[in-house]
Amino acid sequence: MPQIDIILNPTVGDGREGNLAQRLKTLFRDHDMTAYIRETQKGEDTSKLVLDCQNKTIVAAGGDGTVSAVAGALAETDKSLGVLPLGTLNHFAKDLKIPLDINEAIETVTSGQTIRVDAAEVNGHLFINNSSFGLYPEVVHGRELHERLGHGKWNSLLRSAIRVFQRYPVFVVRIDSNDERIVTSTPFVFIGNNEYEIEGLNIGKRQALNKGKLAVYTTRRTGRLSLFRIAIRALFGRLRQEKDFVNFLTDEVTIETPRRLVRVAMDGEVAMLETPLRYRIVPDALRVIVPNAKPNKEAD
Fold first, then answer.
1. Domain 127-283, CATH
2. For domain 3-111, which CATH number applies: 3.30.565.10, 3.40.50.10330, 1.10.10.1400, 3.40.50.2300?
3. Global pTM value
4. Predicted confidence (pLDDT) at residue 84 exceeds the cutoff of 90
5. 3-state secondary structure (DSSP) of residue 275
6. What is the pLDDT of residues 4-46, one digit of tens each?
7. Where in the chain are the domains?
8. Is residue 244 classed exposed, middle or buried when 0-12, 13-18 and 19+ CB atoms within 10 A define those classes?
9. Contact by Cβ (8 Å): 265, 136
10. Are 7 and 66 in contact (CB under 8 A)?
């Protein structure tokens, strides 16, 4: 019977009830496949779990943070990444059209096709979706502090967001790429692994993860009202008309700021990194199992 390894975040889904691991084993057995499950622990280096896996297919079962951690260990290897999207947002799975239903996702892992997709990295740290510094990582950091004090996840997020927007940190940055140099003060810089939709109802989605480009987004204005105006323009499909909004594509970019250390978000996880921040795209870094392409319908 074919075998796979699963890296499972036990805090997601039915993991709170303690039966998710056994359920996954049973579901994979129903697909004539033996699953060896390794559960992550808070504070544990997920890459060590991945390196202990002997099979050619490693499945990340959890949210984007779990998928990103597993991907970081599999990048530029001959092993394939399967995804069971059990998190809240599941951006990576959605952009690759991987089903969110657990049974359909398992069907994809067991019988899907393998494609190559890009990853990106900042100062040697790999990410699969996006990275940013400024407002967002400050909010995430504050949320984590409130959670440690016993507040719930969403309550902590709201408290942190209110406090960060009251303080409203602004960064002086110099952004250098192959064709662009921007010196500005800004509340955020956002770097995507490939290009994101930035207008209309598809905001936050990517049409492709294999174009070999970083997407850089920032603003030249620092005020709260300016940021609100940009958000409204994006919602109504008029963001590209906003002269203070900056976005471009590149394969590498360096971001300098007077601060020696800054909080940087990578796929929802926050770390303190030394500046300058050096981003680069890593083309075709990952082998990912996705649904089989649907055959084109023949013309009548």
1. 2.60.200.40
2. 3.40.50.10330
3. 0.85
4. yes
5. coil
6. 999 999 887 544 445 889 999 999 999 999 999 999 987 778 8
7. 3-111, 127-283
8. middle
9. yes
10. yes
